[in-house]
Each structure stands twice: as structure tokens, then as C-alpha cells.
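Sequence in, structure out.
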Amino acid sequence: MKEISVLNETENPLFGRKEISIVVDAPSAPAKPEVFEFLAKKFSVPKENVKIKKISGKFGTDTFTIDANIYKSKEAKYATELYSKKEKDMEAKVFTPPVEEKKEVVEEKVEEKPAEDVKEEAK
């Protein structure tokens, strides 16, 4: 993202959020993880409090408009916004830190006695 300017920033106390519109000059459409990072830094909030509504651009231009909501808390965001399964999966990937390789669990082998020996011990 080369140049970024805020078009509109409105405080909405009813929903506990800021509604913003940003114009970005970039050679290609910015990826959502990149936008989450930028908005979180710009407005000093955790990325979990940001909801990207829309990233749109006009054909043949390098200008993109991003509409987003920035909530005061993660709980307020999930109480207000509607999510599709695709959006939930995408946000889970963005907000979840990378998982370290799982350590292999070494299972101890239990000695099994033949069925005949078990019957003899039971007597």
C-alpha cells in the first residue's frame, strides 16, 4: 500500500464503533490480512476489533476504497456484525497465531498376554 488517506471517519456510539472509509493507492487490491494490520496500527486497537466491510476498486485504476468498522471491544463486534462461514474461517486464519509443529506422542506398548495365559491366571 503506497498512499493512504482517510475519506470519512464517523463515531457511532449506539454500536460502540467508528465507521471509516479509506482510499488506498496500490498496484493491486490490498489483501485483508494486510488491511487488518494497517487499521489496527493506525487506530491503536487489536486486529480482532476490526471488521472490513468492503474493499472495492474501479477497473483500470490503482485506487481502492476500503470501508471498515472499528469496535471498542471484540465482544461488541461479534454481538453486532453478521458473519458468513467464509468470513469466520478467514478471520480465524488471520487472528490465530501460527501453530508450532506438533510433537509426536510416544506411546508405551503394553505387553499383551495370550488369551490362554489370561484364562490360567483367572483360575
